[in-house]
Amino acid sequence: MKKFFQKLFTLGAKYSIIRSMKYIAETLKYIVKNLWYILLFGVLPAAFFVGAFDYSHFTLLIKNFFTGKLTELTYLDLFRAFSLLNVSSWYGVLCSLFGFFVVCIMMSVLLALIEKHMRIGKRTFNGVFSKINDNILATILVALCVFLIYEIWTALMALAEFCIILIFAKAPVAAYIFGIIVFALMVWALMHIISYFMLWLPCQLITGFHVFEALTYSAHLSENKRRRLLPAILIPLLIGNGILSICVLGGTPALAPVVFVVDLFFFLYYGTLMEIAYFMDAEMEREDLKPAYKRR
Questions:
Q1: Cα–Cα distances in Å, from 268 out to 31, 117, 158, 280, 282?
Q2: Residue-wise pLDDT tens digits, 164-194
Q3: In sequence order, what are the residues at sequence separation of 6 or more whose Cβ sits closer than 8 angstroms to the Cβ of residue 55?
Q4: CA 131, CA 233: separation in Å to the nearest integer?
Q5: I need a surface site. Which of 38, 220, 241, 291 has the fewest CB within 10 A?
Q6: DSSP string of 230-248?
């Protein structure tokens, strides 16, 4: 009997993992299959991300962390390494501000194209760009909310980590242990918060609900599936930032091309994920998965 329950638990855990990976698998499958249709929308946002990325503070954070100098970091070092708003230089500020609006414009068009493809099965640009007028305000609102939440989280996370550094200034091992634990908990909390907003934008664009109606409905849709949605949000972030960290430690001569590729993937991935997750959670039939002769 004991072996039976052990096998049942193992099978259940395996099935849960498989189900949690379904969002990632479906998102990557769509990107690969439709790459040449959606790639262009991510080039300009990725280019602005390259200018808005704070190379000096990110490099400082990674090198100090992996060389045992974590306790030498200041609050501003921690904040600037994670913040999306690069205030280290004037062109960083400009790229951050202009990049925000470029991301919103390109994301509104990308979502319109993907939504049209999944809803009616047509992968054409006809009428897609005209959807900017309909989608842009909702996209800016959601992007602004997520941006503010992330920046507040960054400020609190940097404060918590800096307090740990001050408390354990003479005990670096303890600083590393508690620093990693606090950071992991705060990342997990951020992912939970972001998951409530993940379906907000497609819900507004597809259903036509008002702002708060769409937010309530999207939170309801993701409530029972949040455990599967969280890995889909978190894993690509870990991999992307892991690649950047390896490049920093490896002494990559030019980090900008790596930042461009990673952020290009992030833009396409999370834009596609929103639509994939919405269609899956709302149990909407996807016409793009049907053969042409079966499409309505």
A1: 7, 15, 28, 18, 21
A2: 999 998 899 999 999 999 999 999 999 988 8
A3: 255, 256, 259
A4: 26
A5: 291
A6: HHHHHHHHHHHHHHHHHHH
Q: How far apart are CA 50 and CA 52, in angstroms?
A: 6
- Per this entry, what is the length of the chain? 296
207 residue type, one letter: T
DSSP 8-state assignment for residue 69: -
Instruction: Give the angle 116-118-124 at the CA atoms, nearest 5°.
Output: 45
Closest by Cα among 45, 142, 155 to 100: 45
DSSP 165-201: HHHTTT-HHHHHHHHHHHHHHHHHHHHHHHHHHTTHH
Please write the tens of the pLDDT for every residue from 217-253. Answer: 877 777 767 778 889 999 999 999 999 999 998 876 6
Half-sphere exposure (Cβ direction) of 130: Cα atoms closer than 13 Å: 5
In degrees and rounded to multiples of 5, residue 199 shows phi and psi of -100, 5
